[in-house]
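Example record

One chain of 367 residues, shown exactly as stored in the release files.
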Amino acid sequence: MGCTRLVYNRALAFRTEAWYERQERVGYEDTSAMLTNWKKQEDLQFLKEVSSVPLQQGLRHLQTAFTNFFAGRAKYPNFKKKHHGGNAEFTSSAFRWKDGQVYLAKCVEPLPIRWSRLLPQGIQPSTVTVKLSPAGRWSVSLLVDVEIEKLPESPNQVGIDLGITSLIALSTGEKIANPKAFKSKRRKLRKAQKVLSRKQKGSNNRYKASLKVAKIYGEISDARRDFLHKLTTKLVRENQTIAVEDLAVKNLMKNHKLALAISDASWGEMVRQLEYKCEWYGRTFVKIDRWFPSSKRCGHCGHIVDKLPLNIREWDCPKCGANHDRDINAALNILAAGLAVSVCGANVRPDRNTSQGQLLRSRKSKK
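Predicted structure tokens for this chain:
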């Protein structure tokens, strides 16, 4: 881990300095040649003691980070820090898979792994990634190529409205409560952070206190991830078509009154899991336009009210008199819009010229 982090940070520092001082672009091939020279230096002889593959993979990851930065998909790469943990990636030439055990390059003994799941029979891993979490927990991830069996077709369809009090409201009328993983550990985390702030910087006691804080963060992350995986798997197994709103979570996080609750709900991760699991198991996943007024639109007559503040959880349609639960009505409208998109590719953005906006029309179709 230390060697991989050192090579990554040195390459990042050199590429940054080359650009800001000489306006010179340095690529992966240049940093790879630099790694060879670093191994010849007396103070870096320890780099020869580990496999060169994870060091080269670290340089490839740095190149990917710069590619994403220049494409506008990510921020400028950061230096790796020891207390953040890290990872080392071994491709097929740098490990051996024998009798269900993993032998890393330049290691005589196999990794003492406590398996969370068994690999399918006859499968050969293509990549092994060894990870260290900030809490000091080691894990090994094996990448394998398997054929995922599609689920049998289901007659069910569901629209999902994302929320905070109820994590999701379904068009079936069901609501799933938000477990609020962060809120449940907030007092414990605050206490541990206070203890950490009192420790002297650089001391062993501060290191121990930082591990306790990292472990609490790990508990929060594990609880949230476990709940989301179980929930999304259940939804995918039970429904053939799943429709959700295409929310701009980054923009919503700018509301400082709701930012903590939104991040704790982890909407983006839920949608991501639903999307790839639908692709795996042969389900239809539909995202509808984020500007579609799912909450303000009456599911019975299509009337759209002008304003609907967040504190109003139930409302009556002024046109047809139907009573609506805000979240359930939104889920029903999302399902209807999702079916329109999946069947005929209709644009579900409402006509902005009138409060009686409809599902069907876009500006182009009018012309």
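Notes: DSSP finds eleven helices and twelve strands in the chain.
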